[in-house]
């Protein structure tokens, strides 16, 4: 009986040991599986390689955006130039409601196209160069509203002597007093063109239309300075004494004198 009991105890001990070893193996296997599932961390060399690759990808994306922007910009310029040259291709917009309606319609469309172009692309690469190429043609247009929009565009661009000379040419002989007045602050940005501007103003005051000469005489104040006020004072003494432009010019000169 005692030998049977001892045998049973020994057998139970062996079974317990086997179970414990089995459980240990399961735990170890589970642990190994968990460690195996953990994401690997790239070493320093891998991270260094990822940096330039990411930069190249970003540069490629930016280049794609810039290319698309350039395409859209060119398309907008093409549309403006197409309107500017529509008489050559017999493709101008038509409005037969009035003999001058088509003329004004074209002007309105050009002004809107120019404004849309500036709104969409101002500050983008290539914009200033495109504008410089457009301004001369816009200033040469026969519609005063288109010319005025060109002056607005000039005022928001860096000074350009070429554009300033195109403006002086557009103003030569113009009957449009409003355009002349709008142009005064812009012309004041070009002191190096003082002699050419003075020739234009003298011609306008002596021989210009009633509207242009009167508007210039009334609004010349901001353009006056110590270097040219003597010239305009002498000119005022040579103009017809009773003419409205003479009275306005003298009043402008007197106001300038009081402000000094």
Summarize the structure.
This protein is mainly alpha-helical and about 260 residues long. The protein has helices at about 1-35, 45-85, 85-90, 100-120, 125-140, 145-155, 160-170, 175-185, 195-205, 210-220, 230-240, 245-260. Mean pLDDT is about 80; it is low at about 1-40.
Detail the topology: elements first, then pairings.
Layout lengths: L1 H36 L6 H41 L1 H4 L11 H21 L5 H13 L4 H12 L5 H11 L5 H11 L6 H14 L2 H10 L9 H10 L5 H16 L1
Assembly type of the chains comes to single chain
Name the shape in a single word: globular
Report the total helices.
Answer: 12
Give, in order, the helices and strands: HHHHHHHHHHHH
Q: What is the β-strand count?
A: 0
Please give the largest β-sheet: none
How much helical structure, as a percent, in the residues?
A: over 70%
Radius of gyration: 41 Å
> Quick check: average pLDDT?
82
Instruction: Kindly estimate the percentage of residues that lie in beta strands according to DSSP.
Output: under 5%
Structural class: mainly alpha
End-to-end separation: 136 Å
Describe the structure in your own words:
Keywords: Signal. Residues 31-50 are annotated as: Disordered. Residues 1-18 form the signal peptide. The longest helix has 41 residues, at 44-84. The radius of gyration is 41 Å and the shape is globular. Helix content is 77%, strand content 0%. With 260 residues, it is mainly α. Helix 8 runs parallel beside helix 10. Among the domains are: 70-158, no CATH class; 175-260. Mean pLDDT is 82; it is low at 1-42. It has helices at residues 2-37, 44-84, 86-89, 101-121, 127-139, 144-155, 161-171, 177-187, 194-207, 210-219, 229-238, 244-259.
């Amino acid at each position: 009986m005692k030998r049977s009991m001892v045998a049973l105890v020994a057998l139970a001990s062996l079974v317990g040991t086997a179970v414990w070893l089995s459980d240990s193996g399961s735990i170890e296997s589970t642990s190994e599986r968990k460690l195996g599932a953990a994401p690997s961390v790239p070493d320093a060399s891998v991270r260094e390689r990822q940096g330039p690759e990411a930069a190249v990808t970003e540069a490629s994306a930016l280049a794609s955006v810039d290319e698309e922007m350039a395409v859209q910009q060119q398309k907008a310029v093409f549309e403006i130039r197409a309107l500017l040259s529509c008489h050559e291709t017999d493709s101008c917009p038509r409005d037969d409601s009035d003999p001058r309606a088509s003329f004004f319609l074209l002007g309105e469309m050009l002004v809107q196209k120019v404004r849309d172009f500036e709104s969409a692309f101002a500050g983008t690469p290539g914009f200033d160069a495109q504008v410089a190429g457009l301004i001369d043609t816009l200033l040469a247009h026969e519609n005063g509203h288109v010319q005025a929009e060109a002056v607005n565009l000039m005022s928001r661009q860096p000074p350009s002597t070429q554009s300033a000379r195109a403006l002086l040419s557009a103003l030569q002989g113009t009957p449009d007093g409003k355009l002349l007045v709008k142009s005064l602050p812009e012309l004041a940005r070009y002191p190096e063109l003082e002699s050419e501007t003075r020739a234009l103003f003298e011609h306008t005051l002596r021989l210009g239309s009633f509207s242009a000469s009167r508007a210039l005489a009334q609004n010349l104040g901001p353009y006056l300075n110590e270097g040219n006020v003597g010239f305009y004072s002498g000119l005022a003494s040579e103009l017809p004494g009773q003419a409205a432009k003479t009275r306005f010019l003298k009043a402008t000169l007197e106001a300038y004198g009081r402000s000094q």
